[in-house]
Specification:
By secondary structure, the chain is mainly α. Helices cover about 60% and strands about 0% of the residues. The radius of gyration is 20 Å and the shape is globular.
């Protein structure tokens, strides 16, 4: 882990606070990891070695990882890995440039290229204009393997950033679900588009999320989509009220999904982090504590980066409040209505 920590800055440890020797931290009494054990955005056992190798300038492990996901149609893993590899390539591009020079038409290179280009354009003030220039890269990725839904998730994100019309977006959505009817990434991208198109219309977003979850298998990540809709509602300050029972049902569905995964597993960590926030806001402190135990040391940037510029610190503060029984509203910043926010919420 020491080598990984040195190479990969996103794995951030919580800072240690000096305490008297007799002090027993609430998280210790609650059976949670110590502060020093908690890390942010830790990759799983397959992605970690590929990122370490990329940090050393070698692209072969990343290429082998994405090839495996494509050959085995592991689309959820492929989507997550592509995002993380593209993010790493933004700060450490040498390994990816070597890979792209060696295999410019490789479907995995094209996928990461498209994700990287969209991410770079997204942060620019000229986002819409730059995104239009990215379209050929997404098309190339989609055409390189017609089975793969991940380029279509990228296309859905692209359409949201470019403020594409509903008709065009609907065509992209239809193409995505033909390839993978219950692909979580595509569903999240679609919900985000709908939320921005219907700002404040949380009921419509809940309708979309609930229908998707009802149609998905019990173990699908799509079961967590209503909890993401609940998070968006609870951190937004506009739109009509959503009935309490609908928020509770979204949390219940996500709790059932979380129970299907092992404890202290990085794969469902983001879902559990979102669920923890929702449970705290609903006053379900004991269940929030249970999710924190399942999270273990795996904090994730989302949802806490929507509430604070210090996502790890925000997670740690909420964790301590829940463990000590002082949990209130885990929301930072001013707001009104359903809850405050610092940044635009993820719908």
């Amino acid at each position: 882990m020491v080598g990984t920590m040195a190479l990969l800055p996103p794995f951030i440890r919580a800072s240690r606070t000096s305490r008297p020797a007799r002090y027993v931290a609430p998280h210790s009494a609650a059976g949670l990891p110590t502060d020093d054990e908690v890390l942010l955005d830790v990759p799983d056992d397959r992605l970690g070695p590929a990122l370490v190798a990329a940090g050393l300038g070698a692209y072969a492990p990343a290429a082998a990882l994405l090839l495996r996901t494509r050959e085995r149609a592991e689309w959820e893993y492929r989507d997550r890995y592509a995002v993380r590899l593209a993010s790493f390539a933004r700060s450490r591009p040498e390994w990816f440039e070597d890979w792209r020079a060696a295999a410019p038409r490789d479907p995995d290179v094209l996928l990461v290229s498209a994700q990287l280009a969209v991410a770079r354009a997204w942060d620019s003030p000229a986002r819409a204009e730059l995104l239009r220039e990215v379209s050929p890269l997404i098309t190339a990725a989609a055409q390189s393997d017609v089975r793969d839904p991940v380029p279509w998730r990228i296309a859905l994100d692209h359409a949201r950033g470019a403020r594409a019309g509903h008709k065009y977006f609907g065509e992209l959505w239809a193409a995505a679900v033909r390839r993978a009817p219950h692909h979580y990434g595509c569903h999240v991208a679609a919900k985000r588009y709908l939320a921005e198109s219907w700002h404040g219309s949380h009921r419509e977003c809940f309708d979309f999320a609930d229908r998707a979850a009802q149609d998905a298998p019990a173990g699908s990540l799509v079961q967590a989509l209503p909890a993401r809709a609940a998070f968006a509602y609870l951190t937004d300050g506009c739109g009509p009220e959503v009935p309490r029972e609908r928020l509770e049902a979204a949390a219940d569905r996500a709790v059932a999904l979380s129970a299907r995964f092992p404890a202290a597993d990085p794969w469902p960590a983001e879902i559990r982090n979102v669920l923890t926030y929702v449970l705290v806001r609903l006053g379900r402190r004991d269940e929030a504590l249970a999710q924190l135990r399942l999270i273990g040391p795996y904090a994730t940037s989302f949802p806490w980066d929507r509430l604070s510029d210090d996502p790890l610190g925000h997670f740690m503060a909420v964790r301590e409040e829940v463990a000590s029984g002082r949990a209130g509203e885990p929301s930072a910043g001013p707001g009104s209505g359903h809850g405050g926010r610092v940044r635009p919420p993820d719908h």
